[in-house]
Amino acid sequence: MTFAATILTLYPEMFPGPLGVSLAGRALDRGDWSCETVQIRDFATDRHRTVDDTPAGGGAGMVLKADVLGPAIESVGEGRPILAMTPRGKPISQARIREIAAGPGVAILCGRFEGFDERIFDHYPQIEEVSLADIVLSGGETAALAILDACIRLLPGVMGAPDSGVEESYENGLIEYPQYTRPQEWEGRTIPEVLRSGDHAKIAAWRKARSEEDTRLRRPDLWDRYSGDRDQSASGARRKD
Fold this sequence. Notes:
Elements: E1 3-9, H1 22-30, E2 33-39, E3 52-53, E4 63-64, H2 66-74, E5 82-91, H3 94-101, E6 105-110, H4 119-123, E7 127-131, H5 140-152, E8 185-186, E9 189-190, H6 200-218, H7 220-230
Parallel strand pairs: 1-2, 1-6, 5-6, 5-7
Antiparallel strand pairs: 3-4, 8-9
């Protein structure tokens, strides 16, 4: 089954962009996924093909018009999740990426200017408002590329080793353990002895411990969630310290 991606954007020339090379590009050539763009401006009805207008109530910038966005969204059809890229959205998670990658595809609506007329979300409650992080981009296109890349690499056959997409940051609630490779010594620094021991049990224990320690120090938000989940009993009640 081909994973079908549809991008609703004012800049269709940005796609597939970097997704046309490397692993994603080879998968695109094989037909593992497809990339279709929808030009939002094509749904404007005035002679100037206007897609935005000034904010109601005043303020800087311009807002994408609901009467243009609506027909553009309708053109996508049903059966796939629709994501709207906006800094007002919930940061997308690796778990949600896995769910999307396991399905038939995704449609992504790319914001620009001051964002979308809020009424499109009232009218189309199935749209998921998502963001990459607590940052503001010039438009949703670069965020859409990142989300597509995260999905495509999980498609069957895209990555060489099946485990490549499993032992990674966020897959088990932790960031990944540090990695090393040859040469054994570089600038006076050596690969940790345990990784050269050949003892797979000790290596696994070291990696787990480093994942936990690094997550605790670098991502306390993830650590709080991970340690909380770990302390849940089978009945769902949190164990007392």
